[in-house]
Write a structure and sequence with these properties.
Elements (H helix, E strand, L loop, with lengths): L1 E6 L6 H15 L3 E6 L5 H5 L5 E5 L9 H4 L4 E4 L4 H12 L3 E5 L9 H9 L2 E4 L2 H10 L5 E3 L11 H10 L4 E6 L8 H11 L6 E6 L5 H7 L6 E5 L4 H7 L2 E4 L8 H8 L4 E4 L4 H4 L7 E3 L4 H13 L1 H15 L4 H16 L1
Parallel strand pairs: 1-2, 1-4, 2-3, 4-5, 5-6, 6-7, 8-9, 8-11, 9-10, 11-12, 12-13
Helix pairs in contact: 1-15, 4-5, 7-10, 8-13
Length: about 350
Amino acid sequence: MHICHVNLASGFSGGERQTLTLIQQQAQMGYQLTAVVNPKSPLVDELRAIPQCQIVLCPHYTRQHGRSITATCDLIHVHEGRAIYWALFQHLLHRVPYIVTRRIDNPLKKKWLSQLAYRKASALVGLSSEIIHQLEKRHPDAKLVKIPSSPVTYPVSQDKVEQIKAHFRGKFLVIHAANMYAHKGFDVTIEAARLLADTSPDIQFCLLGDGKERASLEAQAQGLTNVQFMGKQTNMGDWFAAADLLIHPSYTEGLGSVILEAMAAGLPVIGARAGGIPDIIEDSISGYLITPGDSASLAARIHNIRKDDVTLSFIKENSEARINQFDISECAKKYEALYKEIKG
């Protein structure tokens, strides 16, 4: 089978890591692969390590529409917002079918070109139940399939892990890792830290990330010694190994790739009951869920986990079993079944 993957993002965030993980798995499965990617993206260098993958550099969705690019492809798999237009044009020009993987739980745009691109797709894939719900509202007649992301694994340097632990020695280390956008709930984390500052001084919060909200968040956290802004991190494997707990109190979330990654690394998680997060976390079984924006509940959950080793062990054991359902081998099989159905 020959699949053309398209991701035109210039950065390398969760969606690009998920694209790479699927391509790597499909290479192991014997697929022929083409990847249409933005030349500015670090994804390019990652893909060059996969011999089975032909790379097409494409700076904009209006470029690189030669027939030869997809002449031998069974279908196009879209992974990112702008890429859907590239697939639409290739479909209209050369009749190549395409599917779309949607990663965000926002309502779909009403723009005519966007609606046309979604309508012409052979199938729409949502990472979570909430994304499927949003797709169904705009495209009720489309073929909708839920296929989640898979956890990305990161290398771990034991020396760096020990450095982090030494820096926070004697602390129960809580991390919140995400781009600093308003919907990621960093304000909830800071307020939870404020509630715990006097009663639980041994609980330390590290905010891992950067973004346009950082300045206002730093102002909000002024005077709190139990909150540290660590900036964007490239060694998340070390942080997962060094931390005691991951929190992810987003107001909205497509699925929550960092939750999958933390659970796969053996780290317990508290998330918000928002977007696709409940698709991952079974409340009080494989983690904990709080109401979005409820900093008091977040603080209480953190405090209780800190004091209850039995509960912590229970959550870790169940999260390990839960995460197996999101393994890339399982997700790749679901995509393969969809590809074959569309191919006929």
